Amino acid sequence: MKAMYRTGRELRQAARSGNFSGHTSGEAPGSVQANLVILTRDWAWDFLVFAQRNPKPCPILEVGEVGDPLTRIIADGADIRTDIPRYRVYIDGDLAEEPLEITSRWQEDFVFFLLGCSFTFEHALSEAGVPLRHNQEGVNVPMYRTARECAGAGRFKASPMVVSMRPLTPADAIRAVEITREYPGVHGSPVHIGDPDGLGIADITRPEWGDPVTIRQGEVPVFWACGITPQLAALVSRPPIMITHAPGHMFVGDKADYEFRLSG
Amino acid sequence: MKAMYRTGRELRQAARSGNFSGHTSGEAPGSVQANLVILTRDWAWDFLVFAQRNPKPCPILEVGEVGDPLTRIIADGADIRTDIPRYRVYIDGDLAEEPLEITSRWQEDFVFFLLGCSFTFEHALSEAGVPLRHNQEGVNVPMYRTARECAGAGRFKASPMVVSMRPLTPADAIRAVEITREYPGVHGSPVHIGDPDGLGIADITRPEWGDPVTIRQGEVPVFWACGITPQLAALVSRPPIMITHAPGHMFVGDKADYEFRLSG
Which residues of A touch B153 (CB under 8 A)? Predict the structure, then answer.
């Protein structure tokens, strides 16, 4: 897919001015993309502790100051209320609307979180020549609810970890472990390899989110913790208000994917 | 130094019953040791965001539930009020007392934080044959305030990063980078190698905390982010009450040092 926008800044400007409300997959190649969660400060505490206890599914890249909608870390001065192509507003855990900006909904006690996304490590895998089946087949990565529980925190009860799956040859699976362990800030190394039963997944051909992909003879399914996990945990606990990005409509930052490689 | 206690549980029991109030260096060999910070929930938010923004100096291993003094992650059911050999109570940023337990001081809105400590990666360095000068010379590791600023968070203003220093041959310095990068949960890889001026350290022979150590001909100083950083940041912001462990009198957990190696 050919990118419409070369940089995160260009894409955010287009989103802000109302000229872009589409998916961000393939946009601003090499720039970090992130999941958005906005909660009131009261609920934000539980969310941040939940993320600290479950770093693989909930890799936090940036936490805003209370009441401040401007980013400072993964992008310089982006406005979290306008610079994402599409949002979802959840009231008491139910989806209420899907607006293109949330300026009028912003509250003085809001805190935003930006969480790492597998696009970042997929970029590293592709660069290393590890093929990604869902890209080859032009579909979304398959995602599954597992029997593995995340540790609870406050009102965020223990809840299931969600994983994404990529089928790989054993040799590529080993390389994928080596590569993704270098990216602890964006889910890190896999949580499981092989038999889906080990995660309590009954039918690998029926993902709960995304699309099924072909697992070829001799390939093993490789499972990574998935950023849907924290949104699921938050929804189950039914906060009075939560705002997220709409699926596939991510925040696109200024930082490069490679900057999330483990380092100083 | 010969350990008096074989396990973290034994040491914590001795601290709880008043039979041990000493330094924990060398105790329960191979068990993780951790720095303690207790704040009210109101201040805990700023502290947790500060830590998220500065993971190298502030590696958080466990956050307690609000009002709950029991650990669940790095030790099973340790009582944070009694199981550390010695505490420090700071009122409005000033040291007020140094009690052996804090049961009567515990508040319903207290949150405890346990933060990683360089003992964990030093264990890994020693196992790999990388010599530690301060151990060879029987002194504390030298620590320095730097000109490098940590990102602020809420009432925790931008404040200087504190570093510890170990002199190594260039070959050992390279191995030390390789080894400690595997421990992002306990400060990770160094923040600087070589000229102390690069960190704004004027006189390497005069550390601000700990003791000076010999830098031999052909060795380079290697600097790691240090767990004193968050305590310094907290004190500067003068919370009404903060409780920490007394220096050298650490929390000793059940988890093994090697469990903090980067992995699933």
Answer: 63, 65
CA–CA distance, A35 with B150 (Å, rounded to integer): 25
Q: How far is B263 from chain A (nearest CA, A)?
A: 7
- Indicate the number of domains in chain B: 2
Which residues does B138 contact at the CB level (< 8 Å), separation at least 6? Answer: none
Q: What is the dihedral of CA A228, A230, A236, A240, to 10 degrees?
A: -110
pLDDT digits (tens, 9 = 90+) for A83-138: 999 999 999 999 999 999 999 999 999 999 999 998 888 989 999 999 999 989 98
For A:32-71, CB contacts with B below 8 A are: 41, 44-45, 48-49, 52-53, 56, 60, 63, 65-66
**What's the domain range around A223?**
131-227
pLDDT computed for residue A140 by the predictor:
87
Closest by CA position to A204, among listed A190, A229, A228, A221 = A221
Amino acid letter, B155: R
Residues B56, B25 share a domain? yes
- In a domain? residue B250: yes
Chain B environment of A263 (Cβ under 8 Å) = 181, 189
Residues B44 and B93 in one domain: yes
Residues A95 and A75 in one domain: yes
From CA A176, how far away is CA A242, in angstroms rounded? 34
> In angstroms, what separates the C-alpha of B3 from chain A's closest C-alpha?
31
Length of chain A: 264
ipTM, 2 dp = 0.82
Write out chain B residues lying below 8 Å of A189, CB-based. 262-264
Residue A126 lies in a domain: no
Give this prediction's pTM: 0.88
CATH code where residue B75 lies? 3.40.1640.10
Q: CA nearest B187: which of B61, B62, B56?
A: B56
Domain membership flag for residue B73: yes
What digits encode the pLDDT tens for the residues B111-164?
999 999 988 889 899 999 999 999 899 888 999 999 999 999 999 988 999 999
Whole-number Å distance between alpha carbons of B179 and B186:
12
Asked if residue A95 and residue A59 are part of one domain, the reply reads yes
A155 & A79 share domain: no
Query: Given the DSSP bridges, would you call strands B241-245 and A159-168 parallel, antiparallel or unpaired?
Result: unpaired
CB contact under 8 A, B264 and A189: yes
Indicate whether B248 and B126 sit together in one domain.
Answer: no
Angstrom distances, CA of residue A188 to CA of A182, B124, B150: 7, 21, 25
